Structures are given as structure tokens and as C-alpha cells.
Amino acid sequence: MRSSDTHEAISIDEIRLIDVGPTSCQHHTMRCNTRTYIDTVSGKQRFSTAFHTRRAAFLLSCSALFLATACGSGRDDSRPKTSAARTESATADPFRVALLTPGPISDQSWNGGAYQGLVRVRDSLGATVSHIQTKTPAEFEEQFRQYGAQNYDLVFGHGFEFQDAALRVAPDYPRTTYVVTSGSSVGANVAGIEFAFADASYLAGMLAGTMTKTNVIGVIGGTELPPVKESFAAFARGAKAVNPKTTVLTSYLGNWDDVSAGREQALAQIGRGADVIFQNADAAGLGVFQAARETKKALVVGSNSNQNAVAPDITIASVVIDLPHAFLTVAREVKSKTFKPRLIRLGSESDVVTLVINPAFQSHIPPAAMRAVDSVRRELAAGRFDPRAP
User: Fold this and answer.
1) pLDDT > 90: percent of the chain
2) Nearest partner of 232 among 199, 198, 264, 200, judged by Cα
3) What is the mean pLDDT of residues 206-229?
4) Domains of the chain, with CATH numbers?
5) Is the pTM above the cut of 0.90?
């Protein structure tokens, strides 16, 4: 991975998360309602719009008072209207949305895509939003409870691993809707979003089976979660559908944020002959790109977000989840009071999960392989093909 890419991505996220302060807000008006603060109880870093929203309301009230006083008796008839408008604005309940991620939003993958979804909700619906990174099941439950106690309307737990905590906490906070991505659990105020990641993974496998010269390809995951295993199985089926001689090496790192571990595992697979690697390891997956660029012996398939620009010279394509679209769809329903807890399935037919070919690499892909991928893509969209079937 190029160092300039890493620096750019991390800098963008840091800008979003730092306390920009009064002076910076004058120059970054699009982000003036975004702030990171430290919870004095837990000591954890949070991102929220609440502080700047209250400051803006205060300044707006002061400005209105100044204008009313300066204009004199000739404007007396406007004062009651201004006061009423201020009262209505102050008493209106804001739409509040929170996000819990299991890893850093600088990963250019699973967590970064979720953060973009939160920002999309904020910008599109005028929501007050908050984000916190959590590591353990105990933290999942603790933060779910805190947001419920603060009467948040919607809380996303970003990952299969958040399901149990959501089911335990949700009954205590019936006003709050808890949505778990890659989850299948449903309750009175709990919903799951199931992404058809296997669809695009199968297509990526077809490309891998075509592009391999050694007939050895690899998959590297963070931890052995069911959605990750399912996508890897679909990837292997896609590869063997076009190249029955393909052997698939499988590795799990045991975590999602150790870039060095991702690099070392990729080097180990490359040493065993793998020349195409599909990674689904969030921040740790960036190490796979590093290993492929260092050795110049392997190609990579990105995951979750569009990672084609991470290392365009060695990246075939990315299996992309349009998390901003998914988050906004759910948030709109919750805000309009039309949301019904259910298992929400999103995949090829809704264009939420897609295989995005790297334009910088496309010329290296045989035209026949692209035609085969496009043919199966149409079958998936029409619901006539299931990549999970053995």
C-alpha cells in the first residue's frame, strides 16, 4: 500500500474527529457541527454533533436578541414571532443516531464505510450523530445502554458480533431502535441487516480463478465470523467454477486491526504459491496490500469499501458494500416512524453489494472473463443464481 494513500485517509478521518474549536469552525462551515470529546465517566473518545449544535443555537438566539433590540419600536410586531420561533426550535426533539464500530474508522474498509454512512445520515436528515469504537462484548453492551439512556432514536451496532448485546439491552430501552449489520436477530426494537456479500465474492472468485498463474489463491480474514466464512466459500466456488484446478489457502488473523499480522500472513501465503489474495480483515487487511506490493508476486481483491485506489497496480477489484445507502435507508424509516423491526436483506438486486472492477487494472483482465462475470452478475440480480449453493 502506498504511504501517501495511508496518510491521506487517516488525515481525513482525523479532521472529522478532532475538536476543531471556534476558530476552525469559521473556516470549515460544513463540519462546524462535528466534534470529538472525551466522556468524563468512561474516558472514551466520542464523536458528536451535540456540542456545536447547542453552541449554534445559543449564538443564533443572541443574534436574534441583538437585532430585535437594535431595530427599535418600529419592529415591535415581529418580536412575538421571533420568540415563538426560538421556542419551537429549542423544544423540537432532534433525530439522534449513533454508531458503534469494532475497529478504527481509518481502515478504509468495513468501519470507514460505516462512518461514511453515519455522515450521510447526518447530512441528509439533519441528525445529531455520535460514534464510538468498541472492542469487547462488555463495551458493546455498555455503550448500547448509554445511548438508550440518552434516548437516541437509532443505534447501529456494526457487525455480527453486536447481536447478543443488542438483544440484551433493547428491552430496557423500547424508544431506541437497535440495528445490527451482518446480523440476523430480530426483536421488538432490534433489526438485522444481512448483506449478500457472497454474491459479489463469487464474482471476485471467478476473476481470481482466471487470473491465477499458479492455480493457488488465498483468503485472509480477521476472525472466523459466519458472514466472512460464507463470503470466502463463495469466492472459492467462483474460482473453481472457471478453474477446477484452483487450490484455496485460508487464514484468519484473530483480530481486525493488526496491519503487521495481515502482512505476515499474506507473505506466508505468497510463499506457498498464492498469487491472488482476497482479504476481509478491515485495518489488518491493509497489510495484505503491503505484502503484495513488496513482493510483486500477488494480486489482491479488496473488501467492504472500494479499495481499488489503495494499491491500484496490484488490485483486481473490490467487493463493495454501499453502507451509506443502507444506513440512510434505515434511518429514513426510523425518522418517519415507519420502521418495522425485521431482517433486512440487501444484495445484488438492490445494488448495495457489488463487485467494482479496478479501472486501472481492467486492461489486464481477459475480455472473456469479464463477459462471464457480467453474465453471472445478471443472473444474481434476477435472483436466478445462488452462490451459496454447493
Assistant:
1) 73
2) 198
3) 97
4) 3-48+93-190 (3.40.50.2300), 197-321+359-381 (3.40.50.2300)
5) no
